[in-house]
UniProtKB/TrEMBL annotation, chain A:
Cofactor or coenzyme needed: pyridoxal 5'-phosphate
Enzyme Commission code: 2.8.1.7
PROSITE patterns named among the record's database cross-references: AA_TRANSFER_CLASS_5
Protein name, entry field: cysteine desulfurase
GO biological process: cysteine metabolic process
Catalytic reactions on record: (sulfur carrier)-H + L-cysteine = (sulfur carrier)-SH + L-alanine
Cross-referenced Gene3D superfamilies: Aspartate Aminotransferase, domain 1, Type I PLP-dependent aspartate aminotransferase-like (Major domain)
Keywords: Pyridoxal phosphate, Transferase
Automatic annotation (TrEMBL), chain B:
Organism of origin: Alishewanella jeotgali KCTC 22429
Protein name, as recorded: Fe-S metabolism associated SufE
Matching InterPro entries: Fe-S_metab-assoc_dom
Gene3D superfamilies referenced in this protein's UniProt entry, alphabetically: 3.90.1010.10
Family per record: Belongs to the SufE family.
Any Pfam family the entry gives: SufE
């Protein structure tokens, strides 16, 4: 048994007091927020609110200091070599759109290839597609093996085609599977590729040390890490960030503008056009402070125990077919009820106040490959309790009873 | 093919209106309510695979549904055939169709569907936030009859 005190952890989240009837198993979509994150955002607006980097007044200087301190916090969190390698975005999706736009023309030339896996979220598919065709760039996909992980043999073959970019998710949002990201990144580097990791699901499982990992870009969203919505991070190694063409133009990102041309400011400002989400960045810094109080190993062990308890209970309910292999999951169990559409199961769970997600989880190509209409996803977090697992299993039994 | 489906749908809807709708108005536990909804969906014919084409597809949030339409040229009445991948959604769509099928454009313009759903204690399912495709289907029906 892990020594992690889930009940104490849960006390930090006011959401649960306000929703005592609900079992929240949708943390993969967004996590709940601890009081200190809510307080940090509130305090900024109540006491400090001013725009950053521009006011001549001292208030703006204070706001700027708080915003830039949030950047330092993220730098420490990821162990980035420099604070200018941390770009604030609105989230993972925005980060990928900047990457896909910014690498075309500058790094990617006609005939080049990009390699992703079959487990990617649409955020790591669609932004590439938006530009691939018009730029003559080819998008290749690593297929799944029988364990529903990337097929590493085919991966090696695809690397032999010398992709310029290898872009992989750390953890699958649809199945919860943890990719062997370390060895996959190493292989990509050995093949000469620029490496990108989608950390939206993975950052709460394992925070990367971006100087140790062979990763050139790493993206995550604050709201899946106990932080606010509307704030995210694009980390990039300086020499690669410098090659990115800015997706957004406007204030703050330039050094000089005339009607003929503009010259750009230095990083990180060059990739942060317009007024940023100041309160969001401060909230994210508070979330990082919050999560760093706890031992990640203990948290992961505790989540593993919840998954084991859930999986054992599932095997007692006839007709349920987990797609997730629990031993390789970061906290998600996706399942199917034989012959039934996932939406029916999810509606019956919703009726019993179990918050889950059903469908293809923004990973339509994955479910097309599995030839399934989707799945019902149960996403566990350290604030979930063993008693909630039991309630969920009872609700599942009642739901399958009705559908039978 | 379409004519047969329309005839079968009309028969099914009549069954639902006579037998299941009155049952829905009676108090029951939630399990019975859902059993009834699924049973009611079964009264409508299944759309053959070859007719589940993109042009008829109505995307809900989490499941797919299809809508086919026919306007009787003499009376101007609108007839529909629909199907859904999800059983509960199909039941809810069948109830919706009870109030829509065989009506003229003028009658449909007057229709207050939320009043009917209120009476059946099904109002929450009609709201947009549920993302179950009912609102999408209603919009498709409205745009279809205007076309
Ligand atoms: C793996 C993965 N990538 C990207 C995203 C997109 O994140 P956001 O919606 O915060 O931009 C998500 C969120 O669902 C995700 O799970």
């Amino acid at each position: 048994m892990s020594s992690f005190d889930a009940l104490a952890f849960r006390q930090f989240f006011p959401f649960f007091n306000n929703n005592p009837d609900w079992v929240y198993l949708d943390t993969a979509a967004t996590s709940q927020k601890p009081q200190q994150v809510i307080d940090a955002e509130l305090a900024f607006y109540q006491r400090q609110n001013s725009n950053v980097h521009r006011g001549a007044h001292q208030l703006s200087q204070h706001a700027t200091a708080a915003f830039e301190a949030a950047r330092d916090k993220v730098q420490q969190f990821l162990n980035a070599a420099s604070r200018s390698e941390i770009i604030f975005t609105s989230g993972t999706t925005a980060a990928f759109n900047q990457l896909a736009f910014g690498l075309m023309d500058t790094v990617l030339k006609p005939g080049d290839r990009i390699l992703i896996s079959a487990l990617e979220h649409h955020a790591n598919i669609v932004p590439w597609q938006l530009h691939c065709q018009s730029h003559g760039v080819q998008l290749d996909v690593i297929p799944l093996d029988p364990q529903l992980m990337p097929d590493l043999d085919v991966y090696q073959q695809l690397l032999a085609l010398k992709p310029k970019i290898v872009s992989l998710t750390q953890v699958s949002n649809a199945l919860g599977h943890i990719l062997p990201i370390g060895s996959m990144l190493q292989a990509a580097k050995a093949a000469g590729a620029i490496t990108i990791v989608d950390g939206a699901q993975g950052v709460s499982w394992q925070v990367p040390d971006v100087q140790l990992w062979p990763v050139d870009f790493y993206c995550f969203s604050g709201h899946k890490l106990y932080g606010p919505t509307g704030i995210g991070v694009l980390y990039g190694k300086q020499r690669y960030l410098e090659q990115l063409k800015p997706l957004l133009g406007g204030g703050e990102m330039i050094s000089d503008v005339s009607f003929q041309r503009s010259s750009f400011a230095a990083l990180p400002a060059r990739l942060e056009a317009g007024t940023p989400n100041i309160a969001g960045a401060i909230g994210l810094a508070a979330a990082i402070d919050f999560i760093r109080q706890f031992d990640a190993r203990q948290i992961n062990q505790y989540k593993g125990e919840l998954l084991q308890q859930f999986a054992a209970g599932l095997s007692q309910i006839p007709g349920l077919r987990p797609l997730t292999r629990v031993e390789q999951s970061a906290g998600i169990v996706s399942l199917q009820l034989a012959g039934e559409h996932p939406n029916d199961l999810a509606m019956l769970l919703n009726e019993q106040k179990i918050a889950v997600r059903a469908g293809s989880h923004c990973a339509m190509p994955l479910f097309a490959a599995l030839q399934l209409p989707g799945a019902v996803r149960f996403a566990f977090a350290p604030y979930n309790l063993p008693a909630e697992v039991d309630v969920t299993l009872q609700a599942l039994a009642a739901a399958t009873e009705i559908l039978r | 093919m379409l004519q047969q489906l329309i005839a079968d749908t009309a028969t099914g809807l009549q069954q639902i209106a006579e037998h299941e709708l009155p049952l829905l108005q009676q108090p029951a536990d939630w399990q019975s309510k859902y059993r009834l909804l699924m049973q009611l969906g079964k009264q409508l014919p299944a759309l053959p695979e070859k007719m589940r084409q993109t042009e008829y597809l109505v995307r809900g949030c989490e499941s797919r549904a299809w809508l086919l339409h026919y306007q009787e040229p003499v009376s101007g009445k609108h007839y529909f055939v629909l199907d859904s991948e999800a059983r509960i959604v199909k039941g809810l769509l069948a109830i919706m169709l009870c109030f829509v099928n065989g009506k003229t454009g003028a009658e449909l313009a007057e229709l207050d569907l939320s009043r009917h759903f209120d009476a059946l204690n099904l109002r929450p399912y009609l709201s947009q936030s549920r993302g179950n495709g009912l609102t999408m289907m209603l919009q498709r029906i409205q745009s279809t009859i205007k076309a």
